[in-house]
Amino acid sequence: MLCQRCGRNICADCMQPASVGFHCPECVREGARSTRQGRTAYGGVRPGSPGTVTLALIALNAFVFILVRVTGGADSAVLARLALIPKGATYLVNGRPTFVEGVADGAYYQLVTSMFTHVEFWHIGFNMIALYVLGPQLELMLGRARYLGLYLLSGLVGSATVYWLASPSSITVGASGALFGLMAALLIVAVRVRADVQSLLVLVGVNVLITVLGRGFISWEGHLGGFVGGMVLGAVLVYSPRKRRTLWQAVGFSVVLAVTLAVIVVRTLALS
After folding, report:
1. Could you tell me the pTM of the whole model?
2. Spacing of C-alpha 54 from chain mean position
3. Is the pLDDT at 2 greater than 80, yes or no?
4. Where are the domains of the chain?
5. 52-271 CATH choice from 1.10.443.10, 3.40.50.1100, 1.20.1540.10, 3.40.50.150
6. 116-159, pLDDT tens digit by residue?
């Protein structure tokens, strides 16, 4: 049997059915490489299995949660390292007074690790359900890379807002900043495509109400920062001109990152 594309001989075990005749494995691989991957409406590569990144984020949050719980929960030394603490102070860790470094002392990683850290079952449960509901939709619409960038940068903006506005001795954990960013971005997408936003506005309103009523133990700063960050990033993603869209999106994300880092530096200088 001859390959209909290159004319080479192919055995019965290697032949691959084509629209006309059969192709050899080499031509099939070459065709797969030369075929342009599908793109989302906003420039990302269309994921073959939407939800993969979301499930990975959920798994990471679950892993950190288990690690915190098995090392002492609210008294955990792991929690003391991963939580966002603006300025170092003495806390009870494993039952002993211990000085714990904060972001202003050089523990900048806390701005990111705190986004994946939870202590209470209700906290991680609520957040992961929200991520499971919101995430795959945005992952499908934006593509994996853009979706992950939106999640991480929204969370970082939320952390920077906590760092700027919260008490220097506060302890903040949770993925809520990133989730508020996803919620805001989904709202921007809905407005862009002129979809019915009523249900989304109700969802946002309920979460704002919960944040206001629970501001004594809920980080309203993280929620506010994540939401504003998500709105800006969502607008960058969906309103960038079609011509050189990826470049516009990269520049927009870079500007948001640069402003966020500048805020962190200024706050660090103030606390030092």
Report:
1. 0.84
2. 8
3. no
4. 1-28, 52-271
5. 1.20.1540.10
6. 999 999 999 999 999 999 999 999 999 999 999 999 999 999 99
Cα 129 off chain centre by: 14
Give how far Cα 213 sits from Cα of 20, 127, 210, Å: 66, 18, 5
Coil/strand/helix, residue 78? helix
The contacts of residue 154 (CB under 8 Å, 6+ apart) are 177, 178, 180, 181, 182, 184, 185, 226, 229, 230, 233
- Asked if residues 155 and 127 have their Cβ atoms less than 8 Å apart, the reply is no
- Give first-to-last CA distance, the chain, whole Å: 77
CB of 185 closer than 8 Å to CB of 233: yes
DSSP 14: T
Q: Encode 16-34: b = buried (16+ Cβ within 10 Å), e = exposed.
A: eeeeeebbbeebbeeeeee
Token representation of residue 147: 């979706």
R_g of the chain, CA atoms, integer Å: 23
Residue 263 and residue 76: Cα distance in Å, rounded?
A: 29
Burial class (CB in 10 A: 0-12, 13-18, 19+), 46: middle
DSSP 142-204: H-HHHHHHHHHHHHHHHHHHHHHHS-TT--B--SHHHHHHHHHHHHHHHHHTT---HHHHHHH
Catalytic residues: 176, 223
Alpha-carbon span 123 to 117, nearest angstrom: 10
